Amino acid sequence: MFFIYFLTAIKVVKKARINYSTLCNITKYIIYAYAIVLIIQQICVLTGLPIFNHIGVAESKWKLNALSAEPSHTSRYVGILMYSFLHFKDKIVGYRIPFKECFRKNQKIWMAFLWVILTTVSGTAMIVLALILSRYLTKKNLILACTFLGIAFMVGVKSDMTALRRSTSFLTAVMTGDTKLMMATDHSASVRVVPAILCIERIEPLSLRGWVGEGGGSTATWMSNYMPGVPKGWSGGAMASYALEYGLLVSLLFIGLSFNWCYDKNNKLCTIGLWLICVVLIGVNSQIAWLCILMLYLDKNLSVRNENKSILQFT
């Protein structure tokens, strides 16, 4: 279903002769929609009214979902859309627009994006923000950026800002490779990482079973025994779980194709980062993954001729 969606969307872009300005407007207004819904939800929290379009129960009343299932999903969607908006703006003028100039000319969209990212109380949102800002890294500001990032890590671990503290503390735990420390640091975030590690540990690349898989749904039979705090029969692990259940053959094929579609040599850090958090850490059967693949593919391959005709250079 998602692969058909991907192919259909590409066909529509070509047939409709969509230009860069149109794509900027599409991405911009979707980001506005996320911001507006989030603000309405925040007003509902402030006034004590039932929260509009609220899904799920969170530990914090300010952890709001906007237009998706949860805050981390919202931050991913908005991050993908913001990257595409900025990329197409660059294509319109024919050069990489510096951050100050871009912010000055597109203040409304930047404010909408930052409002969503900074007020959803999502650790993933901080990573998304860092990836988007990485577009503006140059040799001149690289040292300054690394220094700022180091300070953010040191301050973030003890910060009162929940999202910053969660993201920095958890990333620090991930660097150790200790799954127990990850779960103790942030159980919610560890649910997205620890299952993948557990699945990778069970994959046997030297056996036939490793290449053809253990069977669909097999992960659910044992995952809860190693992942505290989840119900029996629960499954996770994203692409690692897919590789374990369906084999290395098909999973490596998908990983290779999706990386090729997403990776842009002119925006290495940002595109690889978005691919990792939106595809590898989400899995095959997800709107987030396929939106990421679709938009990054269009960002990289779409060109518009003088007669305003969309052309895709297939890769």
Give keywords.
single chain; 315 residues; mainly alpha; two-stranded antiparallel sheet; 2% strand
Condensed summary:
With 315 residues, the protein is mostly helical. It has helices at residues 2-15, 20-47, 71-93, 99-105, 107-119, 123-133, 142-156, 162-176, 179-185, 187-202, 208-212, 223-226, 238-246, 248-262, 268-280, 287-301; strands at 302-304, 310-312.
Distance between the termini: 21 Å
- What's the main sheet like? 2 strands, antiparallel
Q: Sketch the topology as an H/E string, one letter per element.
A: HHHHHHHHHHHHHHHHEE
Strand content: under 5%
- Structural class, by secondary structure, is mainly alpha
What's the rounded overall pLDDT mean?
87
Low-pLDDT runs of 5+ residues are: none
The gyration radius over C-alpha positions equals: 20 Å
Q: Classify the oligomer.
A: single chain
Shape: globular
What spatial order of strands do you see in the largest sheet?
A: 1-2
Helix content: 55-70%
List the total number of helices: 16
The tally of strands reads 2
Explain this structure.
The protein is mainly alpha-helical. It has helices at residues 2-15, 20-47, 71-93, 99-105, 107-119, 123-133, 142-156, 162-176, 179-185, 187-202, 208-212, 223-226, 238-246, 248-262, 268-280, 287-301; strands at 302-304, 310-312. A two-stranded antiparallel sheet has the order 1-2. Strand 1 and strand 2 (310-312) form a beta hairpin.
Layout of strands and helices, then pairs:
Elements: H1 2-15, H2 20-47, H3 71-93, H4 99-105, H5 107-119, H6 123-133, H7 142-156, H8 162-176, H9 179-185, H10 187-202, H11 208-212, H12 223-226, H13 238-246, H14 248-262, H15 268-280, H16 287-301, E1 302-304, E2 310-312
Antiparallel strand pairs: 1-2
Helix pairs in contact: 1-16, 2-3, 2-5, 3-5, 3-6, 3-15, 3-16, 5-6, 6-8, 6-15, 7-8, 8-9, 9-10, 10-13, 13-14, 14-15, 14-16, 15-16
